[in-house]
Structures are given as structure tokens and as C-alpha cells.
Specification:
- This protein is of the alpha+beta class.
- It has a single domain, classed as Aminopeptidase (3-Layer(aba) Sandwich), CATH 3.40.630.
- The chain is built from 7 helices and 8 strands, in the order H-E-E-E-E-E-H-H-E-E-H-H-E-H-H.
- A hairpin with a 5-residue loop joins strand 3 and strand 4.
């Protein structure tokens, strides 16, 4: 993707983020996820730990930060390297996502995390389940939209889309909150990381510790 197109996409993404109420998990440190706390709409989702996410249950709707993803894979022409970069970024982002949910005022009530994506290969290894989306017009539109984004992001562009068109089908990925927290939330590590910062704050006199699926 050329620099001019990437800048235009950044402007569009800024507007999209505000319209859809997306929350950044950790924008400054490059977390790949953005989220919306909302109610789940759709058929029951049965998780691999035998939980059920039902229509109307409070969930975290997961969104890949595609603009950030485009920057990460920029200049990489090998599919294997792209996949490895993406997997590495997602693995590094999941613990902070768990911490964000646990600290969030709405986090205690949610039943699961749900996303709709083309990037669903291998997510079972991360604890997520995968399921076909309902045959709704909305998902057909979203499937085409995500293909266009992939065409813009991938170095091979339209050629890549033509070669893999049959495999590029949007799926729903999901995990129960209990399973997600068990896998990725590490309060002891988080506390250990905070202690030096607190000590540093004392030394420097009152230092402050700053910082869509239907």
C-alpha cells in the first residue's frame, strides 16, 4: 500500500472508530485489538469449555485494528512471514486485552468475546472456536468489505484475492470470558510490573502513571 493511500485510510479509520464507538485496548503500545462492549445478536454459540453465549448476552465485540495491521505487514511479500508477523502480534496483544477487560467497568458482566473475520485460520490454538456466520445480508456485505481491505493491505493485492478467493470466507470466532481470562489474564505478573513503576513514582515525588459483528 502506498503512503498516500495509507494516510487516506487513516483518516477514514479515525471517522469509523468514532462512529462505531470502538475502544482502543492500548493504542500507544500497538495492541492489534479494538473492542466494543455490547449485546450479542445471533444464534447460540457453544464454546469448547461448554459455555453458551446466547442472543442478548453482554459480550466484547472484537475488531482487528486493520490500519495498524497494514503497517505491520507493509513491505513483507512472503505469505509465511506475513502469517508469522500476524500471529506474533496477536499473541502479544491478547494478555493486555484480558487485562483491559478485567479492569473495565463493564468487564464483570460479559459472557464472551466474539469477532467476525477472514483471519480465522489457526485461532483454535489460541483457545477460540470458529463457526460459520448466519446467512444474513449484513455478513455478505462484510465479507466483501473485508476482502477489499485485504486486497489493499496485501503486497500482492488483487492477485492474492483471485488466487485465494474461495478460501476467503468470513467466520465468527469466539471464546467464553472464563476461558479467555484463564488463558491470558496474569494479575501476579501485572502487579510485579507495576511495583517498580510505583517505586519510581515515589522517588520522583508524586510521579503519575499514565496512560462491529452483530
Amino acid at each position: 500500500m502506498n503512503a498516500g493511500l495509507h494516510r487516506l485510510w487513516g483518516i477514514w479509520d479515525f471517522i469509523y472508530q468514532h462512529v462505531t464507538r470502538l475502544e482502543y485496548v492500548d493504542k500507544e503500545n500497538g495492541n492489534i485489538f479494538r473492542v466494543v462492549f455490547c449485546k450479542y445478536r445471533g444464534p447460540d454459540l457453544k464454546t469448547n469449555d461448554k459455555k453458551v453465549i446466547k442472543n442478548g448476552d453482554p459480550i466484547v465485540k472484537l475488531h482487528i485494528y486493520n490500519w495498524k495491521l497494514a503497517k505491520i505487514i507493509s513491505g513483507t511479500n512472503n505469505d509465511t512471514r506475513i502469517a508469522l508477523k500476524l500471529l506474533k502480534t496477536i499473541r502479544e496483544s491478547l494478555p493486555e486485552l484480558a487485562n483491559y477487560i478485567e479492569r473495565h467497568p463493564k468487564g464483570k458482566k460479559i459472557k464472551g468475546l466474539v469477532g467476525t473475520t477472514l483471519l480465522h485460520r489457526g485461532v483454535h490454538k489460541l483457545g477460540f472456536d470458529v463457526e460459520d456466520v448466519p446467512n444474513w445480508t449484513w455478513f455478505k456485505i462484510k465479507n466483501q468489505y473485508l476482502k477489499v481491505l485485504l486486497m489493499l493491505m496485501h503486497p500482492d493485492g488483487k492477485k492474492r484475492l483471485q488466487l485465494k478467493n474461495q478460501e476467503l470466507v468470513v467466520k465468527r470466532v469466539y471464546i467464553s470470558k472464563e476461558n479467555f481470562v484463564l488463558r491470558y489474564f496474569h494479575p501476579i505478573i501485572e502487579q510485579a510490573e507495576q511495583e517498580p513503576k510505583q517505586q519510581s513514582g515515589e522517588l520522583f515525588s508524586e510521579g503519575l502513571l499514565v496512560e462491529r459483528t452483530r
